[in-house]
Amino acid sequence: MTTIKDSVHDHIEVDGVAAALLDTEPVQRLRHVKQLGTVQLVYPSANHTRFEHSLGVYHLADRALSHLGIEGPRAEEIRAAALLHDVGHGPYSHNVEPVTHRYTGKYHDDVHELLAGGSVGDTLREHDLDPARVADLVAGEGQYGQLVSGELDVDRMDYLVRDAHHTGVPYGTIDHERLVRELTFVDGELVLAEGNVQTAESLLLARALMNPTVYQHHVARISKAMLRRGAERLLDRTDRTPEELRRMDDHDLLVALRTTEATAATARRLRTRDLYKRSVWAEIDAVPDEVVDADYETIRDLEAEIASRSDLTDGEVVVDVPKRPGMTESTSRVMVSGEMRQLGKQSPLVSALRTAQRQQWRLGVYVPESETDAVGRVAAETLGLDIDGALVSDVRPGVTATLDEFTES
Predict the structure, then answer these.
(1) Long-range CB contacts (< 8 A, 24+ apart) of 262-267?
(2) Is residue 192 within 8 Å of residue 199, measured between CB atoms?
(3) Each residue of 59-84: pLDDT tens digit?
(4) How far from the centroid of its chain's Cα atoms is residue 291's Cα?
(5) Residue pLDDT, tens place only, 268-313
(6) CATH assignment, 2-168
(7) CA distance 6 to 296
(8) CA separation (Å) from 197 to 92, 189, 209, 268, 388?
(9) Most buried of 70, 134, 155, 284, CB within 10 angstroms?
(10) CB 169 within 8 A of CB 210
(11) pLDDT tens figures, 375-394
(12) Please, what is the end-to-end C-alpha distance for the chain in angstroms?
């Protein structure tokens, strides 16, 4: 058994197949992949990694298995999946994943090939575990996959608490011990036991509050968008492959960007925090549906048009269009009066949070700081924004302004 001191869960005891997996290369690689990607440019202490998060997920999965009374080989499979659930992440975690997905069709939880071979596959087989079954659990398949990847998964429980701890933002603080203790299976579905509507609401509320404060902070979004453009250019201008990019860590990618002529400027900006600024920051009601739902190629065409009309070069305009607001946590299941119910149909809080999410949604157009004023009007016209009927947020808290008045320091 290995005992590891953790900043969130105190001491984590790692045993069995998980202890053997710890020193495999794919797991150790996670020491060099930041959990929150570029959020560190907003919250300097957010330097925690996918490695420590994976340990936390393993720990909570182990606690859940104990409460659920699951033992033997099935429990070992779940523990292995919990520790390995993030080995498929590329550099800077989710920041670059959309880039590699466009080329490979694979997300970070598609790890069948990765677990089948190499030291991880050997270790799993040495412990009489089937790598394919473990990979299925990582993908959230089957009854027990819900523990690793689902609306009530231990992954979510760990990252909310861990991200809140390392950013210093209190909104992600949840009673993860109670959440783990109250998990149960009913008709093959993972649910929270009777009397836990408020417990489920706390998980939902924590995620809803962390989203605008941490995960979708405008500086994190700008730096993430710049990093993605750099990664795209790296694949377009060099002989590096998407599969190679998927297996890089943060340091590998930053060095590749710095040593490639076409991406050196982006690397310098990220390294020195000389980031683009917001030229437009538009609410969802001010944006045409065809822009909100635009695919990647359409957005790139819009960027090129804005750049051309503003006399800027390719890459100096970034249009950032988030997905429509969604709340998967609202489908969490809780037992109420002996019935299994979805939280979204039981809790009045869900409706209020959905409204808040819609109000927080913003489309961003990012350009070098010296070009923000010049590009704003052109971008609004090109995108068809309703600047007369809707307001665009100013960067000063509590202030809204029309596009003509919008500036950023």
Answers:
(1) 262/233, 262/234, 262/236, 262/237, 262/238, 263/230, 263/233, 263/234, 263/237, 266/226, 266/227, 266/229, 266/230, 266/233, 266/315, 267/230
(2) yes
(3) 999 999 999 999 999 999 999 999 99
(4) 23
(5) 999 999 999 999 999 999 999 999 999 999 999 999 999 999 999 9
(6) 1.10.3210.10
(7) 40
(8) 35, 16, 18, 48, 42
(9) 134
(10) yes
(11) 999 999 999 998 753 334 33
(12) 53
Token readout for 148 is: 């690793």
- Spatial separation of the C-alpha atoms in residues 279 and 172, rounded to whole Å: 30
Contact status, residue 94 vs residue 33, Cβ threshold 8 Å = no
| Dihedral over alpha carbons 201, 207, 210, 215 (to 10 degrees) | -170
Q: In angstroms, rounded to a whole number, what is the distance separating the alpha carbons of residues 148 and 135?
A: 11
Q: At 330, is the pLDDT very low, low, confident or very high (cuts 50, 70, 90)? A: confident
Q: What's the token pair of residue 400?
A: 């809204």
Q: Where are the domains of the chain?
A: 2-168, 276-324+361-409
Mean pLDDT on 222-229? 97
What is the DSSP track for 108-144? Answer: TT--HHHHHSHHHHHHHHHTT--HHHHHHHHTT-HHH
Give 79's contacts (C-beta < 8 A, 6+ positions apart): 16, 17, 18, 58, 61, 62, 65
Q: Record the tokens describing residue 101, joined without a space.
A: 């997905």
Per-residue pLDDT band at 329 (split at 50, 70, 90): confident
In whole angstroms, give the CA distance from residue 226 to residue 220.
10
**What gap in Å lies between CA 133 and CA 138, rounded to an integer?**
9
Residue 163 structure tokens: 């991200």
- Express each pLDDT in 163-189 by its tens digit: 999 999 989 889 999 999 999 999 999
